[in-house]
Amino acid sequence: MTAAPRAAPTPDPPTALAASAVLAGALCLSISAVLVKLAGVDAATTAVLRCAIAVIALVPLAYCERRRHGGLSRAGILWAIAAGIALGIDYIAWTASIYLVGAGVATVLVNVQVIVLPLLALTVDRERVSTRFLVSLPLMLVGVGLVGGIVTLTEVGDRAVLGTVLGLIAGTGYGVYMFLTRRGTRRKAEGTLQPLAWATASAAVTSAIIAAFTGGLHLTGIEPMSWMYLIALALLGQVVAWLLINRGSVRLVPTMTASLLLIQPVLALVLAALILGETLTVGQAIGAGLVVVAVAVANGVWRARRSRNFRQNLRGPDSVPR
Known about the structure:
disordered N terminus, mainly alpha, single chain, disordered C terminus, 14 helices
């Protein structure tokens, strides 16, 4: 009498859903650079309007959440405001870098968060960084470097150095925002809409303060089509994207969140090719492939598959993977 074969395991539903949410958020974020270019509005004004429009959409949603689950604690509000300051710095620096080095390079540079987020989690919260993430990190960095054409940075303009610095500042702000949001929401389950609304409002104020020292805001003379692009930027790149990422990232370890979000520059290149008619160089195509491989390695996809295949081979050809 032989034992009935055991069914193959399915992925942990909470983890799988969380990863899917982060990937969907990355897709929304990846179109942001394209929308910025299409809008054609200066960096400071774009950053402020992106957040201000998003706040208008978030307030009623946050109010409904407050009525159902109660309001944020004082600590929750302070965490959200602090995260919003980092997000405001990210937005205004990143938008400026788009006009200096181009959408592709700027989108790649902002992904320095893949280093910032796990490093902060390790330093502050003493969360262990997985060995496979450390192994895949050089591959990730080479991939994003090829995707953004960093090896040929001199070809994108004389202001490439300033644009690169701004892109790295944006990436640091991005990583800090992710860390503070994740840390604040893990302290107490207080929902996702209210923290996002507070953080977005804080980012709008931060961007406006920075704008006062960098040429001011220019709210007049914006074309109707540019307003449409800005509204789409606010709703997709701020409201929908961060709701998905914030909801998913709290259920994932920092390295997995950072790795999944690293798919963003690859998606940005695809969307830029489809919408703006931009073409990939051979180096960018190779880099995109390296990013995908690095994400798979960092999240243990191949390791898990090899383990299942190894166990199946030990049991024989008629056995079913556990």
